[in-house]
Design goal:
Layout (H helix, E strand, L loop, with lengths): L2 H8 L6 H9 L5 E2 H11 L8 H13 L3 E3 L15 E4 L1 H31 L1
Antiparallel strand pairs: 1-3, 2-3
Length: 122
């Protein structure tokens, strides 16, 4: 990754929590809004709920930022609803998600090191 790409990704960090959850939901597959909402709810054991207004506002901002795009492929007609819009990560979105994951992993490492240090002093 060259420096210009790296600085482009860094301008999005830290990601807003809603952005992070939507991008993470799209990491492995294209999904429509309701499926994203359900995945976030399940993945967080109900701790994070993306209400429709929040979700669709987030999707619009992610589209505007070129982190996601509408997917071209759709399920077969018998498994689909024509009103649904499907979303996918763009290459930039995938890089931003990866950079945010590294940032969060680094933060967890610091937290664990501080916890170990505090426990050894006690």
């Amino acid at each position: 990754m060259n420096d210009s790409n790296s600085s482009l990704e860094q301008k999005f960090l830290p990601l807003k929590p809603n952005w992070f959850h939507v991008l993470l939901s799209l990491a492995n597959e294209e999904q429509h809004g309701y499926a994203i909402m359900q995945e976030v709810l399940e993945r967080t054991d109900g701790k994070v709920r993306l209400w429709p207004a929040t979700l669709y506002g987030t999707l619009e901002r992610l589209l505007d930022a070129s982190l996601i795009a509408e997917a071209n492929r759709r399920p077969s007609a018998d498994e689909d609803d024509a009103r649904r819009r499907y979303y996918r990560l763009t290459p930039l979105g995938r890089r931003v998600l990866a950079a945010e994951c590294v940032r969060l992993e680094d933060l967890v490492r610091v937290i664990r090191a501080k916890r170990r240090a505090a426990e050894s002093e006690a």
